[in-house]
Design goal:
531 residues; alpha/beta; 8-stranded mixed sheet; 7-stranded mixed sheet; 19 helices; 17 strands; 18% strand
């Protein structure tokens, strides 16, 4: 039988301590998410409502099917920067008339919905998800354009937003713009380059240059409505395909457009699913507070996959990496999960073979990260850890089946690469609040700098300043610790969001379903594996 039998003691003190630590992290996570939901704060929310307008998340809620899930992406974008958490835009995957769509919605309560550098990154990520997974792309537009003080970071790379819209359309992926307010300057090209455009009467304003700019450039006097109002674009310019009476009408029209697409999913239909045998709530007490302490990822797998049924591959070889076959919400998957953190040569070779097998059967791969990297030391270098690690990274890099990554704990060094970190382009990547990622652990990194500094001083015949060394190590450890935390990394869009461990099965199921909008990719072609 391949059904996993759990050995997790949920009544013991160790489990209780881990659970308490995770709940504290989740409370912090809720507080950070609340900042994104709050938008520009009560003053600007009230002002927006006083204009008779809906908030960004209210628009999304009315657009998607009733009682259907909305998987919000990158809600912590811009965390730890000078810009508000959330980056003044909401992005995610929602179901509209039974069709999974990527949805973006400007938040006009934050500086009028103006785009800052993190807004740009978040928007480009949403478009990339739509393109790679072949999902219709719906923009809910109300933005004053670029945040001008940061234009140097937005203007040149920002052109990709419009390129992406044309690439989506050229690939046969529908793009829809529902315009609720301002869509000015470069932002006018969002409706201009969308397949379908709806504008709200007496609210939508779409022009390359507003009245003040037109006056300065040409001396011409004009008003908003005649220059770029919704009715003008519906009757005169032809930019608007549909003129909505109000916001609710625009959202109804958006749903109608999607319904008429005749969209179908070419990917494999899921099989019959069954719930795990073990409670998802148990996931709160599995990851230790100290990530140097290993944990059994099979206990996680048993609480995520259908029927807790996990067919382990090569269980007696390369035991620091668990590999095997399972299903989530009826979608077959292959799983690679770190068991003891360190990746040795055997683990790397096992991973490469397993990834090749998944590509032969066209099975998506899920990476559950808790790795400190590849093993170092004379014996391991002589046994070929570099070429074995390269073999694993080669396999990950050239695999053409969809990859999904969950960072549960540590994600250090080249282990981040071999286990399909952000640079290896997984379709989706999420982190638990317990996750940490850096080139190496804070103490190790500070220690390396100390050793290098000490050796440099000795080579110059100088006495090493031990007091300065201690201060340096303390400062570096604090810096690396802060920069390895999930909020910091998620704020820079190195993942698609920090999630509650209990939501892992649901999030994976939504992502696997979304992936089914794209046809099964061609088989992989691999470079040379160094044996």
């Amino acid at each position: 039988m391949s059904v996993f039998r759990s050995r997790l003691d949920i009544s013991g003190p160790e489990y209780a301590a881990r659970r308490e630590a995770m709940l504290a992290k989740l409370a912090d996570l809720d507080a950070e998410h609340a900042k994104a939901v709050a938008g520009g704060g009560p003053k600007y929310v009230d002002r927006h409502r006083a204009r008779g307008k809906l908030l960004a998340r209210e628009r999304i809620e009315l657009l998607v099917d009733p009682d259907s899930p909305f998987l919000e992406l990158s809600p912590l974008a811009a965390w730890g920067t000078d810009f508000p958490v959330g980056a003044s835009v909401v992005t995610g995957i929602g179901v509209i008339e039974g069709v999974e769509c990527v949805i973006t919605a400007n938040d006009p309560t934050v500086r009028g919905g103006a785009s800052n550098p993190w807004t740009l990154r978040k928007t480009l990520r949403a478009a990339d998800i739509a393109l790679r997974n072949r999902m219709p792309y719906v923009n809910l537009v109300e933005s004053g354009g670029a945040d001008l003080p940061t234009q140097k970071e937005i203007f040149i790379p920002g052109g990709q937003i419009f390129r992406d819209l044309t690439r989506l359309s050229a690939a046969g992926i529908p793009t829809v713009a529902l315009v609720f307010g301002n869509s000015t300057a470069g932002g006018a090209y969002v409706p201009g380059m969308s397949d379908y455009v709806v504008m709200v009467k007496e609210q939508a304003k779409v022009f390359l240059g507003g009245p003040p700019l037109v006056r300065m450039a040409t001396g011409e006097e004009s008003d908003d409505e005649s220059l770029g109002g919704a009715e003008m674009h519906a009757r005169t310019s032809g930019l608007a395909d549909y003129l909505a009476a109000d916001e609710h009408d625009a959202l109804r029209m958006g749903r109608q457009i999607v319904r008429r697409l005749g969209w179908s999913k070419p990917g494999r239909a899921p099989l019959t699913a069954s719930e795990p045998l073990y409670d998802e709530d148990d996931l709160l007490g599995i990851v230790p507070e100290d990530l140097k302490i290993p944990f059994d990822p099979r206990e996680v797998i048993a609480r995520v996959v259908d029927g807790s049924d996990f067919d382990e591959f090569k269980p007696l070889y390369g035991s620091s990496l668990v590999t095997g076959w399972a299903a989530v919400h009826g979608h077959p998957i292959g799983i690679l999960a770190n068991a003891r953190g360190v990746l040795f040569g055997e683990e790397a070779q096992k991973a490469a073979q397993f990834i090749q097998l998944a590509n032969q059967s066209r099975t998506p791969l899920v990476f559950l990260q808790n790795t400190t990297g590849y093993m170092v030391g004379k014996d391991y270098e002589q046994s070929g850890i570099i070429k074995h690690g390269a073999m694993m990274i080669n396999a990950v890099s050239n695999s053409t089946v969809p990859h999904l990554t969950i960072v549960m704990g540590a994600s250090y060094g080249a282990g981040n690469y071999g286990m399909c970190g952000r640079a290896y382009d997984p379709r989706f990547l999420f982190a638990w609040p317990s996750a940490k990622s850096a080139v190496m652990g804070p103490a190790q990194l500070a220690g390396v700098l100390s050793i290098v500094g000490r050796a440099a001083a000795e080579s110059r015949g100088q006495v090493y300043d031990e007091e300065a060394d201690a201060a340096m190590r303390q400062m570096v450890e604090a810096q690396i610790e802060a920069e390895s935390l999930p909020y910091f990394l998620s704020g820079r869009l190195y993942d698609d969001g920090v999630i509650d461990p209990r939501d892992t099965r649901t999030v994976l199921g939504l992502c696997l379903s979304a992936i089914g909008n794209a046809p099964v990719a061609d088989p992989a072609g691999y470079g040379v594996f160094r044996m």
